[in-house]
Design goal:
heterodimer; A: mainly beta; four-stranded antiparallel sheet; B: 11 strands
Chain lengths: 112, 113
C-alpha cells in the first residue's frame, strides 16, 4: 500500500468553526489531491497540488483552502465549516499528473 | 465539465457468474483510464489501468473502446469477495485538467452465495 496517512480520521465540529485536515505521504510523489465523497455525487475534486507551494482549484473548491509547504504534507482547511461540508474527505497522491492515483484512508467529517 | 458515466447498479450476481461493467466518457482526447474498487467505508483502491490493447489480471479483464468512448471491466468466476463498488476514472488532457482524474459515481456489485 502507498504510504499515505490522513488525520484526523474522524471529526465532529460545529458550524462556523475552522477545521484543518492533514494528508501526509512518504512516497515523495509530486501530485497531491483532496476529494470529497458524498452519496449520489461520487468523488469530487476540491483542490490539488502539483508541487510545493503550487496548488489549483478543483470542481468544488468554494469554502476550502489548501497549503503545501513540504512535499510530504498537503493541508485542507475549512475556514468556517458549514453543514454542507459534512462528508468523507480523501487525499490522493500520484507520481505524475496523468498516472494512477493512490488514496489515503479518508477522514469522516461531521459539521453539526 | 467532462463527464464520466456508470450504471449505478446494483448488480446482484451468483457466485461463479461473469459480470461486466461499462463506463462512458465524453472527452475523446482522454488518454488514461483506470478501474478502482471501493469497499464500504473504505478508500478507493486501484484495481487496474486500462490499456489500448486491453489487459487482463487473473479473473479481471479491462477493455478500451475509443470509437464508442467507453471502457469496460469483466469479472469472471465471481467470488463473494468481489462484492464492492467499482469506480472508473478518466483523465482530462486539456489544460489544467491534464493533472486531474474524473471519477464515475461507481457501480455496486453484490455477489450472492
Amino acid at each position: 500500500d502507498a504510504g499515505i496517512t490522513q488525520s484526523p480520521r474522524h471529526k465532529v465540529t460545529e458550524t462556523g468553526t475552522p477545521v484543518t485536515l492533514r494528508c501526509h505521504q512518504t512516497e515523495n510523489h509530486r501530485y497531491m489531491y483532496w476529494y470529497r465523497q458524498d452519496p449520489g455525487h461520487g468523488l469530487r475534486l476540491i483542490h490539488y497540488s502539483y508541487g510545493v507551494k503550487d496548488t489549483d482549484k478543483g470542481e468544488v473548491s468554494d469554502g476550502y483552502s489548501v497549503s503545501r509547504s513540504k512535499t510530504e504534507d498537503f493541508l485542507l482547511t475549512l475556514e468556517s465549516a458549514t453543514s454542507s461540508q459534512t462528508s468523507v474527505y480523501f487525499c490522493a497522491i500520484s507520481p505524475t499528473g496523468d498516472y494512477e492515483q493512490y488514496f489515503g484512508p479518508g477522514t469522516r467529517l461531521t459539521v453539526t | 465539465r467532462k463527464e464520466v458515466e456508470q450504471d449505478p447498479g446494483p448488480f446482484n450476481v451468483p457466485e461463479g457468474a461473469t459480470v461486466a461493467f461499462n463506463c462512458t466518457y465524453s472527452n475523446s482526447a482522454s488518454q488514461s483510464f483506470f478501474w478502482y474498487r471501493q469497499d464500504c467505508r473504505k478508500e478507493p483502491k486501484l484495481l487496474m489501468s486500462v490499456y489500448s490493447s486491453g489487459n487482463e489480471d487473473g479473473r479481471f479483464t479491462a477493455q478500451l473502446n475509443r470509437a464508442s468512448q467507453y471502457i469496460s471491466l469483466l469479472i469472471r468466476d465471481s467470488k463473494l469477495s468481489d462484492s464492492a463498488t467499482y469506480l472508473c476514472a478518466v483523465n482530462d488532457p486539456s489544460g489544467a485538467g491534464s493533472y486531474q482524474l474524473t471519477f464515475g459515481k461507481g457501480t455496486k456489485l453484490s455477489v450472492i452465495p
